[in-house]
Amino acid sequence: MTDDATDQEPAPVESVPVAVTWRDWLPAGTATPADDELITRGELLARLKDVGVELTPRTLQTWEQLGIMPRPTRRWHNGANRSFYPAWVVYIGRLADSLKTYGAPIEGIRERIRRMVPRAMREAEIWSKVLGDHRLDGPLGEMAEQFELAAGESLASIEVRLTLPDGQVWGSYTLNLPAPHEAPRDDVRAK
User: Fold this and answer.
1) Strand pairing report for 38-40 and 80-86
2) Are both 123 and 178 inside the same structural domain?
3) Which long-range contacts (CB under 8 A, 24 or more apart) does 149-156 make?
4) Which of 22, 57, 95, 185 is the one with CA 20 to 30 A from 89?
5) Which candidate, 28, 20, 43, 30, places its Cα nearest to that of 89?
6) What pTM was computed for the model?
């Protein structure tokens, strides 16, 4: 007698066609980002790591094949054919990682992620505006100095969380502060 649970193989998950890229994920009427606004695969993996998502290049490719991350566009750049993504793909990766961590099935992730593209695009746009002109750096640096004066301790970083009314964290901004003996650094990241 055989055990039915061990005899059954998991149903295969269909791969997304190679020709489908992040451009196909754009909502109707959305402008395509300019080439100078795109990031490479290496930059995407580094930014994902900055927001707490550690993916290997192979895992990223697998997620692309499964349709839970958009495939890149490719073009000739600096003497080689390279993969490029818009910055909002970082937020798609973070959302996909969260869904996967909580046990969502691949099909469910694929469907939800495609619906979340407008949100990822808004997050990327907001963070690029806030980080691009460093609006928060001065006030947060002053807050760190006040803390140091009051507590006699220096801070390593300050994190600001943006929370929705239901308690869900929409995003966060981290300003890494220099150690007391270091010169100021321009090292910030958004989650």
Assistant:
1) antiparallel
2) no
3) 154/179, 154/180
4) 185
5) 43
6) 0.64
Distances (CA, A) of 114 to 50, 111, 124: 23, 6, 16
Last residue of a domain, one of 112, 132, 152: 132
Q: How far apart are CA 46 and CA 81, in angstroms?
A: 20
Q: Which amino acid is at 68?
A: I
What confidence category does residue 5 fall into, taking pLDDT thresholds of 50, 70 and 90? very low
Residues 31 and 117 in one domain: yes
Q: What is the pLDDT of residues 81-140, one digit of tens each?
A: 889 999 899 889 988 888 888 888 888 888 888 888 988 888 778 777 766 556 777 888
Determine the Cα–Cα distance for residues 175 and 141; give it in Å rounded to an integer. Answer: 8
Token couple for 12: 């295969």
Residue-range definition of the domain harbouring residue 181: 137-190
* Cα→Cα distances 176→31, 53, 86, 169, 181, Å: 33, 18, 25, 20, 14
The amino acid at residue 143 is M
**What confidence tens digit (pLDDT) does each residue in 30-79 have?**
888 888 889 999 999 988 887 778 899 999 999 999 999 999 999 887 77
Indicate if 125 and 60 belong to the same structural domain. Answer: yes
Pick from 191, 175, 172: nearest CA to 140: 175
Whether the predicted pLDDT of 2 surpasses 50: no
